[in-house]
């Protein structure tokens, strides 16, 4: 048990048990989780969350993007609510904590407040955002982007997963399965948003610290590149006559490596997804498609390098045609000093050691920044490992994060 001087008590055992129960939905070898957005497993995870939240008296609702809310009513329900939570979907080879910890920490924090018999002036809404990871339907953060008005909700209806399922269809299937949950309009202006998340990096552990007070998030741009060539026979077609999409893709990626080279090692450039068609050993490919994930904390650098991507790819083509589509563009985000101060103060009151730090990963929180004071709470990740089955934070660490959140929520909800 993590003891709170004000009587709030986070249950380490209950919190950990819930995390481990959730991890069974989509369990993969090596303690990992594969629970992609809008799959049956995602539906089941949401039902499991409801099975814990409803007996507590939290009121559920769902919006047009499938963002799921659980409301703790304040003594003045007319005031803007505090919003807190994260996402429940995972990477295809993900861990047991990325995303889901933030949702369950929010539940644990609100449960601690209610079990202590405390009331709050403002309401607190727990949120589980739809499709943060973007592993099945790219890009990520669709739920929070639509909620904040950053993109219209129908933006991604035609996006397909690897099996040709459309995002719009899968979203409709979720909403039909949850027809018993009250629908709410998309978007509102919270009083503040606080997202708990695992660090996904090595700094807190390496420095022996407990809590990351997140100062902001670096910017990201995602692109999809399609290179169109012509199929041919691998044994008979002379190289000089081919339009080989794979060969031009390799040139394009080499040119992009040069474009994104950074002696300071701050810029992040990733080609994480490559598809080749028809994907046959003895056929020259007529289509190659790959993803680009580009990140930098400085908006000027991100803009300059990102704006050069299309021309760099085109210049690398010898025989094929390239199309470059930008699917995601999030500027660097800066979190609110008031929320940062509240997180730091709560950590110190609990005897925990906080550190102010930026986030290299993107999060739903960056789309809340234009709406309301926003912040994030990090807890250590063992070995800095994330987007990997070995992702781990200890029972004590997750409970400490939830205890910090409970204090922050109380403070904000009474202000
Ligand atoms: C989110 O998972 C990210 O890629 O930062
Ligand atoms: Mn995450
Ligand atoms: Mn993730
Ligand atoms: Mn993420």
From TrEMBL:
Classification via Pfam families: M20_dimer, Peptidase_M20
Peptidase M20 dimerisation domain location: 216-314
Lineage top rank: taxon: Bacteria
Transmembrane segments: none
Coiled coil: none
Keywords, in A-Z order: Hydrolase
Stored InterPro entries: Amidase_Cbmase (IPR010158), Peptidase_M20 (IPR002933), Peptidase_M20_dimer (IPR011650)
The protein, known as: M20 family metallo-hydrolase
Organism: Falsiroseomonas tokyonensis
Taxonomy of the source species: Bacteria, Pseudomonadati, Pseudomonadota, Alphaproteobacteria, Acetobacterales
């Amino acid at each position: 048990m993590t003891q709170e001087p004000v009587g709030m008590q986070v249950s380490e055992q209950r919190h950990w048990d819930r995390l481990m129960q959730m991890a069974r939905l989509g369990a993969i070898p090596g303690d990992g989780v594969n629970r992609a957005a809008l799959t049956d497993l995602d539906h089941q995870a949401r039902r499991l969350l409801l099975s814990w939240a409803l007996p507590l008296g939290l009121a559920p609702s769902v919006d047009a993007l499938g963002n799921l809310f659980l409301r703790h009513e304040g003594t003045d329900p007319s005031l803007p609510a505090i919003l807190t939570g994260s996402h429940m979907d995972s990477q295809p080879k993900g861990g047991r904590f990325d995303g889901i910890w933030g949702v369950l920490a929010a539940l644990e924090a609100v449960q601690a407040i209610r079990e202590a018999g405390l009331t709050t002036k403002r309401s607190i809404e727990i949120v589980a955002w739809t499709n943060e990871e973007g592993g099945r339907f790219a890009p990520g953060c669709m739920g929070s982007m639509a909620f904040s008005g950053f993109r219209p909700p129908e933006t991604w209806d035609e996006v397909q997963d690897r099996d040709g399922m459309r995002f719009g269809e899968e979203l409709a299937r979720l909403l039909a399965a949850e027809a018993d949950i009250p629908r709410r309009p998309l978007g509102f202006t919270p009083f503040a948003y606080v997202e708990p998340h695992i660090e996904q990096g090595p700094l807190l552990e390496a420095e022996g610290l407990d809590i990351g007070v997140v100062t902001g998030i670096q910017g990201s741009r995602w692109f999809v590149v399609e290179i169109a060539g012509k199929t041919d026979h691998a044994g008979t077609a002379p190289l000089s006559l081919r339009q080989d999409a794979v060969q031009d893709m390799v040139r394009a990626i080499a040119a992009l490596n040069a474009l994104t080279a950074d002696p300071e090692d701050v810029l992040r450039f990733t080609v994480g997804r490559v598809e080749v068609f028809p994907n046959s050993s003895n056929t020259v490919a007529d289509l190659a498609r790959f993803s680009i994930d580009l990140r930098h904390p400085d908006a000027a650098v991100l803009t300059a390098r990102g704006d050069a991507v299309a021309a760099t790819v085109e210049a690398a083509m010898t025989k094929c045609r390239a199309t470059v589509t930008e699917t995601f563009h999030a500027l660097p985000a800066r979190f609110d000093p008031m929320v940062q101060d509240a997180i730091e103060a709560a950590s110190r009151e609990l005897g925990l050691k906080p550190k102010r730090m930026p986030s290299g990963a993107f999060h739903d929180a960056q789309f809340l920044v234009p709406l309301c004071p926003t912040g994030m709470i990090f807890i250590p990740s063992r070995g800095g490992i994330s987007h990997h089955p070995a992702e781990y934070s200890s029972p004590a660490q997750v409970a400490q994060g939830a205890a910090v959140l409970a204090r922050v929520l109380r403070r904000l909800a009474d202000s």
